[in-house]
Specification:
With 418 residues, the protein is an alpha+beta fold. α6 crosses α7 and α9 runs antiparallel to α10. The chain is elongated. The N and C termini lie far apart (66 Å).
Amino acid sequence: MQVPALLNTISGPTDTNGRLWPVHRRKILDWLVTGTRDERFIDNIFVEMLDRLLEAGLPVARASLHFRTMNPQWLGARILWRKGMAETEIRTFDYGVEETPEYLNSPVQKINSGADEVRWRLSEGTDDGSDHSFYDDLRTSGLTDYVAWPLDHTLGKRHVISFASDEPGGFSIDDMAFLADLIPAFSLVSEIRLKNRLARTLLETYVGPHASEQILAGATTRGSGVTVGAAIMICDLRDFTAISDIWPRDDVIELLNGYFDAMSEPIEKHGGEILKFMGDGLLAIFPLSKPTACTDLLHAISEAQAEMAALNRGHVEAGRKPLGYGIGVHVGDVMYGNIGSRKRLDFTVIGPAVNIASRLENLTKEIKRPVLLSKAFADMAACRSSVESLGSYPIRGVGEPVEVFAFLGQCEAEEMKD
């Protein structure tokens, strides 16, 4: 079979040992190398590449990308396209998927184990005793041929790309050569986008989504930052030093992770940004650019308290003491930006408002109330029916005593409804 004229091929360079890449120069290859620089997302490039393949006469009916990620929640992701789809379907995979039969019997596992190609002519049945349920599913959906290749990135990182056809004869020799020619270029194009995504994911993981946007936008010099109004929340676990001295290391880590999950997920759900985990404590802000920031923070605390109650029930059932905690809340202007040495920076918030929130958290130990709010915050949140005034207390760094309120956790109050 001859390569169709509309492929616009130009013979590639050869040497005495055989053909070099590319076997043929094609318009779609030129587009991959020079025409994708303004597209940020690899799934969009993937869809356009497949549309161009169809226009060029390639019988591609299904294609997929399989990437390993550095996400704390997922080991990897699959980007799946079928003919007629304007957008891809993206599925994430949890850690541990590598031990499942679905993975162990997959072509992705074979590629990750070192295979340079996996080809399966679906129209030709086989009975070698292996589990071929994946290929059976493809065959049932009307596909006739399947091929997978590695996408080799730097430092030995390997990902997978696959194509499937619904043409009666599957992929021809020329079709396979056409597709194979695209792989080196697509590997380079995908690596750039994947590394950009990984950089963003790592920043989001370690400094939070808002701070990561600031850093990626260029806020990387010491002292760079902005002043923002924010509701500030500082939380600390009680008696952690004694626990960490007595408990086994793995149990301490499990305890901390459970505690941080209980506190963090409600904060993020309600629009807060966790800027720092400090041993057994955390610092979070709710920017006042959102009108409901203060009530959002109280909703987060109420849900976190419910999560902590559930966590403590488990501790009691296991014969352990329930975990105590203290939360201090204030509102005010903070400096939000880079602080540190010339070579090592921390993107965080500082200012008197942060100090007051920290001292309110310390005051919870003395007053024996788990959540203390400043009068400034209580007034802004308009939540008087959900708090109890405990009187005024001297706060270091503040000239006059500060009226302090205990949060009662009544998020059903009318003034707290969104």
